[in-house]
Design a protein that fits this description.
Blueprint: E1 5-10, E2 24-29, E3 32-36, H1 42-48, E4 56-60, H2 66-69, H3 72-81, E5 88-92, H4 96-107, E6 120-124, E7 132-134, E8 137-143, E9 153-159, E10 162-166, H5 175-180, E11 185-189, H6 203-209, E12 218-221, H7 225-229, E13 244-246
Parallel strand pairs: 3-4, 4-5, 5-6, 10-11, 11-12
Antiparallel strand pairs: 1-2, 1-13, 2-3, 7-8, 8-9, 9-10
């Protein structure tokens, strides 16, 4: 069993709070490279951190908001003009292909239909609780509470003998307990410190619920302005852009 690394490329909210990049996690192991979410700033984050976008074989999407999928048009075009040959598979909630292609057309008209030197395939994760093979990973979606015009998921990813999960964006729901159970690492959205807002999590709630999350390690991400202003009061581990974790 080889080494599996998780590189935190983006741990910020949708608005770049604290100068952080939008959500993007790079999972690297002996069988290839995956991304979990690909926010609008992700291509910049990859190049700043020495991650080759053309070596990414699979992208897993939690939901279809711009700060989680908006980097895809840039990544695809970077591969097209950079002579990428490795096929790319994008897996996400139902409707993922239509949404991504619509974003590509909005940004760069004609780009979704243009011939490219690599295959681009979309895969829908349709059944919550059911594992689906996505390249070298087994991916299980869990429904969470975050309206995005399509189902929103937490994702549990088994890869290289390790198990990680990411909450996606959501308010508290018991499906997070299922997603996190027995994981080596659970990445959990924590936009606010104590403010209660629909469809997002806050630190005080997570602190109260921590014992329900049966994970070896919990890392808070998707950090908003209020959370960053009070981060010195936080007793749980907080993610940082550029952080490298060996699993």
């Amino acid at each position: 069993m080889g080494t599996v690394e998780l590189h935190i490329l983006g741990s910020g909210d949708a608005f770049g709070s604290g100068g952080r990049f939008q959500t993007c996690f790079h999972l690297r192991g002996p069988e290839g490279n995956l991304l979990i979410d690909c926010g609008a700033s992700s291509l910049i984050a990859m190049k700043r951190n020495g991650v080759d976008p053309s070596a990414i074989g699979w992208i897993l999407l939690t939901h279809l908001h711009g700060d989680h999928i908006g980097g895809l048009p840039f990544l695809v075009l970077d591969g097209q003009f950079g002579h990428r040959t490795l096929p790319l598979v994008v897996a996400g909630p139902p409707g993922v292909q239509e949404r991504v292609e619509a974003v590509m057309e909005a940004f760069f008209p004609g780009s979704s239909r243009r011939a490219r030197p690599f295959a681009l395939e979309f895969l829908e994760l349709e059944e919550p609780g059911k594992p689906t093979d996505v390249g070298p990973a087994s991916v299980t979606p869990f429904t969470v509470l975050h309206p995005s015009g399509a189902p929103a998921y937490a994702l549990r990813v088994e890869y290289g003998g390790r198990v990680i999960a990411y909450s996606g964006d959501t308010e508290w729901t018991d499906s997070l307990v299922d997603a996190a159970r027995g994981t080596d690492l659970f990445l959990c959205e924590c936009t606010f410190f104590e403010k209660k807002a629909p469809y997002h999590l806050d630190y005080q709630t997570l602190k109260q619920k921590r014992e329900q999350l049966d994970c070896r390690r919990l890392l808070l991400t998707h950090l908003g302005e209020e959370m960053l202003e009070r981060v010195e009061e936080v007793e749980l581990e907080v993610a940082a852009d550029g952080q490298l974790i060996v699993l």
